Amino acid sequence: MIGIIGGTGIYEIVEMGDRIETRVIETPYGKSPEINIFKLNDKDVAFMPRHAKGHEYPPHMINYRANLYAMGQLGVQRIIATNAVGSLEISIKPGDFLVPNDFLDFTKLRQSTFYDKKTVHIDITEPYCHDLRNYLISAGDVVDKGVYVCTEGPRFETAAEIKMFKQLGGSVVGMTGIPEAILARELQICYASVCMVSNYAASISPTKLTIKEVFEIVEDKKEDLVNLIYNAIARTPAERECPCKYALVGAEVDEV
Ligand code: HPA
Fold it and tell me: For residue 245, how far is its CA from the centre of ligand 1 (angstroms)?
């Protein structure tokens, strides 16, 4: 099964398939949001609205562990995530899509591991699945790499923070990509993200940032985003050949 963890603007993908069922999964971390399971051509797809229905949970309050664990329970082996981001580069414009190849984690308060009772250090040198990224890159018009900076939010950034992120090699900044990518790796699930650039980041943007402009771009681009994901899923073969499914091999301390 292929999972989609969607921010706003991607809920329509569910309408492109044949609906099977809606499920809420109980996990040791709490309940998942309502997950729509549907068939897209010959593939089973599970769509999870990251913020739950109606944007209930702001980025720092999302129960990332329950969300990812629920996907694992459903037998999801690959996750395509969508994330709204601000751009740190003039050449990466509002309305563009970017498939990140790395991240910088500036979150502060999130539970970013399933392993609180035993010591597990997963390798995350290449945090996004190489193969899944390639299906997305070949599925449409996207910026094919970039460094995703994740902040704690929910506030936007200061001018000095944006300057620092740029100097550190960041390309785009958002609030929801981490710890999803990390938790997916701990579950040995392939994970890739399509970032939708909704604005230039603070101080690069000539005007005050408003959530209205973020939602306007998302609304404008949602059809393209749905098509991109639809095409990427069509390109995804049944079997995984990437190393993601072995992420825990050599990661557990009591194995050493
Ligand atoms: N900063 C952080 N998160 C965001 C932004 C931004 O500029 N735009 C959309 N999500």
Answer: 31
